[in-house]
Amino acid sequence: MHCPKCGADLQSSLTECPYCGIVFAKYVRRDEPAGVLQGALSAGFTQEGARHDDGVALVLGHEPATVASAVGRAVLLVLLAVWTVSLVSAGVSADRLNGSFMHLPNLVFHETGHILWIPFGRFMTVLGGSLTQVLVPLICAGALLWQTLDPFGAAVAVWWAGESLLDVAPYINDARDLKLVLLGGKTGAEVEGHDWEYLLNAMGIANQDHFIASTVQAIGALTMIAALVWGAFVVAYQFGQRRGNLAPTG
């Protein structure tokens, strides 16, 4: 197809022209001459097609990737994949997970969460720590996806949310043992318990702490893997758009 404004030869899946920047769905709604409007419609810009393309653009992106950005993102995905294997293989081991670089950033949001949830009572104040450290990366993912139209960034943020679940799992697993060294340098047994000891006892399911921890760890691992797959699709799709735009038209 051809751009109705600048005439550039483009892939039919694009929703805007990478050369002149017009958004096709908006352009054809203007009072253009009948010939231009008809040409755009015949190129596939029906309302239904525009909605479909908008959905694809939201999940996979709408701009062709440069070689540098595609390579950089691919390298980042490989590094995250290796890190994922290392974290997941640790199971619910507190030593390896708490030694992770991401543990300290997670801890900042965890402690902030306790303060944010104070108006909702003691149970939510205690739960708010773990809840907030998982919600923050998900909120970042939503902002990147909907506000900045950056699906790759959103995928990385979702990966972070999965990693944060892995970070919570050892805490849950320690609800009865109380051997985990806490922020103050003492174990839960030395300070009369911790968040998840209180939460699981309050719900009457403290005896299920190991099962719940393993489940949270599995959900976190699956989330991280899904995020990496999503990121790989984004890179492949956007780089494919660039190759399509540069291909000779004959």
Describe what you observe in this structure:
There is one protein chain. By secondary structure, this protein is mainly α. It has helices at residues 24-27, 34-42, 47-60, 67-89, 94-98, 103-116, 122-146, 151-173, 195-202, 209-246. Helix 6 (103-116) crosses helix 7. The chain is elongated and about 70 Å long. It starts with 23 loop residues before the first helix and ends with a helix. The relative contact order is 0.13.
Question: In summary, what is this structure?
Answer:
The chain is mainly α and 250 residues long. It has helices spanning 24-27, 34-42, 47-60, 67-89, 94-98, 103-116, 122-146, 151-173, 195-202, 209-246.
* Helical amount: 55-70%
Q: What's the structural domain tally?
A: 2
SS-derived structural category: mainly alpha
Could you list the spans in which at least 5 consecutive residues all have pLDDT below 50? Answer: 31-52, 246-250
The biggest sheet amounts to: none
Average pLDDT figure: 83
State the separation between the terminal residues, measured CA to CA: 13 Å
The count of helical stretches stands at 10
> Rg, please?
24 Å
N to C succession of SSEs: HHHHHHHHHH
Strand content: under 5%
- The total beta strand count reads 0
What general form does the structure show?
elongated
